[in-house]
Amino acid sequence: MVSKLAVFCSKGEYGFNTKKYNRVYKESIENPGKYWGELAEKELFWFKKWDSVYEKKGFKCRWFEGGKTNITFNCLDRHLADGGDKIAYIWTNEQGEERKITYKELFEKVCKTSLLFKKLGVRKGDIVTVYMPQIIEQVISILACARIGAIHSVVYAGFSYQALSTRMTSADSRYLITADFTYRRGKKVDLLEVAREAAKESKTAVKKIVLVRESTTKLQENEISLEKETSSLNGFIDAQVMDAEDPLFILYTSGTTGKPKGIVHTVGGYSLYAHITTKYTFDVRKDDVYWCTADNGWITGHSYIIYGPLSNHMTSILYEGAPDYPTPETWWKIIEKYGATIFYTSPTAIRMLMSYGDKYPKGHNLTTLRLIGSVGEPLNSSAWLWYHKIIGQGKCSIVDTWWQTETGGHMITTLPGLDQKPGYAGLPYFGIVAKVVDRNGKEKKNGEKGNLIINGSWPSVLRDCWHDKKCFEGYYQKIKDCYFTGDIAVKDNDGYIRILGRSDDVIQVAGHGISSAEIESVVTSHKSVVEAAAIGVPDAIKGYKIIVYAVLVKSVQSSEDLEKEIIGYVGKVYGKHGRPERVEFVDKLPKTRSGKIMRRVLKAEEEKKNPGDISTLEN
Ligand code: WT7
Questions:
Q1: I need a labelling partner for 547 at 20 to 30 A (CA). Which of 155, 308, 421, 562 fits?
Q2: Rounded to whole angstroms, what are the CA distances from 580 to 353, 488, 523, 528?
Q3: Average pLDDT, stretch 221-235?
Q4: Which of 253, 264, 278, 404 is the best mutation target for the ligand 1 pocket, counting ligand atoms within 8 Å of the beta carbon and taking the most?
């Protein structure tokens, strides 16, 4: 369906083109120890060098064993000598308020907060839950944990108190850091109330709630104010010397079962992988103004708002708010105002902003942009092309980055400087062996769909699932000793990989495996459709039939004729066997708070069944 598109593409700073990529890739695969060892030495600071780059036991791998470091040393201390005055974050919000913080100021605040945590009794290895909005204090709290060796468990501030307490109980977390409130689409949202409820509900005795951004709230017995308590604390605190394999954080992610999985990442390997993928994917340059619109409650924020950008001494925009509030041009205004050079967002946001029409982005000067990225779900070709033409003004490279909470960093993308293909994430990262295989692990031919697996290890692979050995082993059992991603993909003759969606979202129609994402991509390429979800509903004759839920462009009315037209369109573009039985027009699709369509909820609705756990449902 998609042909190779030759687009102008700025040559990357690191000079990757197909030839150079192929050479470095080959070297990294043939000798991973050398490749990663040299990078770790060149790119990061270590208190003590490792004894071995990696140690493999079955499918388990340990990286930089014997090495000692601290990620905050790499993110802060090492930049101070000649870069302390550089802005680390420009924070802004829906009201257009603004705050800037330099590396030196950030460092000082992290030290103070670390001292406070120590004073409260937080020790190395303790788990601290962070339930905060997208503000500078959230970044400070996360870094303060890492500085003293506490393990942070960040819970997205949109989660309910039940979801928060489940995660605190599961992690046995006794400390909770929260903020009084946040704003969501102009409305004040009380976070402290949620935190208090969660603490009450939690099966662990919560020792302390630390509060930032206070308004008039009266603190309760076990609550303290970060601002007041740190004002009297002075001084510097050395970064805790950490073993490379000490846990850095846990982050809960949803699985197919509905029970959240506490993904564990460790200090050494994660430091390197977050650093190097940021540098290469975004082709980092000294004067960049970088903006990743993700929330720090998810892995994208961890790796590509906090650790990767700081480690690379970048200036980042930190935005607290929605993409289209107060108006659909809010984000374009921010890019213009701060002269952003790199913009990294999700397909959902791209499609949503696309649905408002071109006039909003066109009304702003976006010429500072040189690189634009996407993450979280397949970026369908029509959204890719719009993103490229309207936001990237036909001149920006697009980095569609495929990865997962479990992988810690980018695994597949098209590095700037390489040929771009709309709809394709691209090529595996250095050191990553990505294969498309059948159920037995046999490699599929190019052009054939299959399971995406990763062979071998990489520095930031998940080390464990918190208190859940079975869950961890599950990743390596479907195909022996290979990391099973759970995604369906296809490789073309150039080795470019296109992600088709989760394997659990493949619909078997009359024996044909049809990926929901693929149908959705077709439906959204129809001029009247902005967003769509395709689900499989049991059918007595064909096994499954496809039902599509579609959100229309604002100016278009739903009608029976339009439904017929879309069904016919899918038949034409995809093939008759992929035609949906019905198209339901809806105002919104049910989504997780991280923006993933919850097809399971639609399926339950169709089948009149209980949808199961919907704690992650946004609307
Ligand atoms: C799943 C992982 C990785 C950060 C955000 C999500 C899907 C992610 C892409 C992409 C197609 C993508 C996959 C993956 N996904 N990036 N560029 N193209 N699909 O993290 O919540 O752990 O979800 O997101 O299905 O398995 P996550």
A1: 421
A2: 26, 20, 10, 16
A3: 90
A4: 404
User: CA-CA distance, 388 to 398, in Å (whole number)?
Assistant: 7
Local structure of 100: helix, strand or coil: strand
Distance CA(452)–CA(159), nearest Å, equals: 30
Q: Is 499 a pocket residue for ligand 1 (Cβ < 6 Å)?
A: yes
Identify the residue whose C-alpha is closest to ligand 1 atom 1.
404
Q: Is the CB of 502 under 6 A from ligand 1?
A: yes
**pLDDT per residue as tens digits for the range 97-138:** 999 999 999 999 999 999 999 999 999 999 999 999 999 999
Pocket flag, ligand 1, residue 281 (CB < 6 Å): no
pLDDT in tens, 396-454: 999 999 999 999 999 999 999 999 999 999 999 999 999 999 999 999 999 999 999 99
Q: Cα separations (Å) of 468 from 171, 199, 267, 312?
A: 11, 23, 20, 34
**Residue 564 class from Cβ within 10 Å (0-12 exposed, 13-18 middle, 19+ buried)?**
exposed
Q: What's residue 6's pLDDT? A: 39
Instruction: Report the distance separating Cα 348 and Cα 378, nearest Å.
Output: 10
Residue 40 has pLDDT above 60, yes or no: yes
d(CA 481, CA 461): 14
Q: Which of the listed residues 253, 375, 597 should we mutate to test ligand 1's pocket, taking the one with most ligand atoms within 8 A of CB?
A: 375
Distance between Cα 240 and ligand 1 center (Å): 33
Residue 375 in contact with ligand 1 by CB distance below 6 A: yes
Q: Is the CB of 377 under 6 A from ligand 1?
A: yes
> How far apart are the C-alpha atoms of 322 and 94, rounded to whole Å?
7
Mean pLDDT computed over 48-64? 94
Percent of residues in the chain assigned helix, strand, coil, to nearest 5: 35, 25, 40
Over 60: is that where the pLDDT of 8 sits?
Answer: no
Q: Is 90 exceeded by the pLDDT of residue 1?
A: no
Residue type, 231: S
